[in-house]
C-alpha cells in the first residue's frame, strides 16, 4: 500500500514540476513549483513512514476488501483470497516505471 500510494504522490509532484518548467516566469510557475515540491515531500513521507509501520497498518485493513465470494460445486458460498502476487507486482511496477520516466523528463527539462 505505501509503495503504490507514494508513487502516486511522486507522479503528481513530477507532473507539476514539469508543468512549472514549461510555463514562463510568473505566478503559475511559482505555484506549480511549490505544489510539485510539496507533493514530492508528501510522497517521501508516505513511503518512509507507512513502509516503516506497515505491520501496524496491515492489521487495520480488512482482508475482506481483497476477497472474492464464489460458489463451489455444492452451491454454497465460499470466500477466497482475490489478491495475487501478479496484481501486487503490477500495482507497484506500473506506478514505479511512470515515476521513473517522469523524473527523467523533469530532469531533462531543467
How would you characterize the overall build of this protein?
The chain is mainly α and 110 residues long. The protein contains four helices and two strands, in the order αααββα. Helices cover 71% and strands 9% of the residues. A two-stranded antiparallel sheet has the order 1-2. α1 packs antiparallel against α2 (27-52) and α1 (2-22) packs parallel to α4 (85-108). The mean pLDDT is 79.
Q: How would you state the average pLDDT, rounded? A: 79
Distance between the termini: 31 Å
Task: Report the portion of residues in β strands.
Answer: 5-15%
- Count of helical stretches: 4
Helix content: over 70%
The biggest beta sheet is recorded as: 2 strands, antiparallel
Based on Cα principal axes, name the global outline. elongated
Low-pLDDT stretches are: none
Evaluate the radius of gyration: 19 Å
What's the helix-strand series? HHHEEH
How is the largest sheet built, in terms of strand order? 1-2
Number of strands: 2
Content-based structural category: mainly alpha
Short account of what is shown:
This protein has helices at 2-22, 27-52, 54-60, 85-108, and strands spanning 67-71, 77-81. The protein is mainly α and 110 residues long. It has a two-stranded antiparallel sheet with strand order 1-2.
What is the topological layout?
Layout: H1 2-22, H2 27-52, H3 54-60, E1 67-71, E2 77-81, H4 85-108
Antiparallel strand pairs: 1-2
Amino acid at each position: 500500500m505505501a509503495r503504490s500510494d507514494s508513487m502516486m504522490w511522486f507522479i503528481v509532484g513530477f507532473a507539476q514540476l514539469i508543468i512549472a518548467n514549461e510555463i514562463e516566469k510568473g505566478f503559475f510557475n511559482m505555484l506549480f513549483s511549490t505544489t510539485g515540491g510539496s507533493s514530492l515531500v508528501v510522497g517521501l513521507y508516505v513511503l518512509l513512514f507507512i513502509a516503516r509501520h506497515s505491520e501496524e497498518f496491515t492489521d487495520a485493513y480488512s482482508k475482506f476488501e481483497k476477497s472474492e465470494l464464489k460458489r463451489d460445486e455444492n452451491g454454497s458460498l465460499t470466500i477466497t483470497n482475490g489478491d495475487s502476487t501478479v496484481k501486487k507486482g503490477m500495482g507497484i511496477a506500473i506506478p514505479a516505471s511512470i515515476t521513473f520516466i517522469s523524473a527523467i523528463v523533469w530532469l531533462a527539462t531543467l
